[in-house]
Amino acid sequence: MREFLLLAATDEEGDGGLPRVPVGDWVDAGFDWLKENLDPVFDAISTVTEGAVEGLVDGLLFLPPVLFAVLLAALGLAARSVVFGVGSLAGLLLVQSMQLWEPAMETLALLLFATIISVVIGIPLGIAAAKNDRVSAAVRPVLDFMQTMPAFVYLVPAVIFFSIGVVPGVVTTIIFSLPPGVRLTELGIRQVDRETVEAGHAFGSSRGQILRGIELPLARPTIMAGINQVIMLGLSMAVIAGLIGAGGLGSVVVTGISRLDVGLGFEGGLAVVILAIYLDRLTASFGERGRSRGLRALLTRRRAPVEAVADPAATPDATPVAAGSRT
Predict the structure, then answer these.
(1) 189-204 burial by CB neighbour count: b if 16+ within 10 A, else e?
(2) What pTM, to 2 d.p., does this model score?
(3) Where in the numbering of this chain does the ABC transmembrane type-1 domain appear (predicted)?
(4) What is the pLDDT of residues 205-261, one digit of tens each?
């Protein structure tokens, strides 16, 4: 079987007598041309990216781990629910107790930088695709290609252009996680009620005012779902990027595989799961603020009845009910 595959790859005639199309040779030639002519650009991208990720890592490791875990749990408490805040604290303390806090923060820094770049590129591109059918038709096949290409294939050109390390990990993470941000931004803008947009035009609003005041707020849940998917895909790719020396939890998992150390691999995978659940629930809560059970929503609900009782004018039509009466 192996000999057959090698012959199929080297023979001039493929299956069915068709001549072999040297797609791989063309791709090799294209990458060689890019490497020879755009090497200074790749060096500049590498320098900026490495500096930004290292700065984020230093910032995330600046506070003591326990204090930073408490702050992250408090953010989860305020944004979502008490149960989520307590669970987040327990999970983050478990990561620290497994002595994987520093690799986890390296992965988080890589993911944060890749997500910011993906959002900066993806949301404007999604808006442009929603506003112009030609842009949408041009972007869609590119996104299909990016999403269906196996993730491991991205590692090869990234290593050719940026060598090994954190930079090719960031680049592959951006490429792999970008499509959902573009697609769901376009979908969210297109799903906005046309009558609401026409009402904005009727009041004399400009296209920019309609976008900022009507379309983006109404499309926010869908756009946040896209950002959530960007983060989840980015985290999976950041772990795979451990194969090319991106560091973080990916390197822990790769080390566990190379040594056949089941315990180390499981601890690295468990830390990835804890980080993924925290980021998933946290970002999802920003898209469903109305259903939030977080501290802010709880205080708002408790304050509302007090204000209503303190201001009888708020219920002018209320009919007094005699004590002891039944309806």
Answers:
(1) bbebeeeebeebeeee
(2) 0.79
(3) 104-283
(4) 888 888 888 888 899 889 998 998 998 888 888 888 888 888 889 889 989 888 888
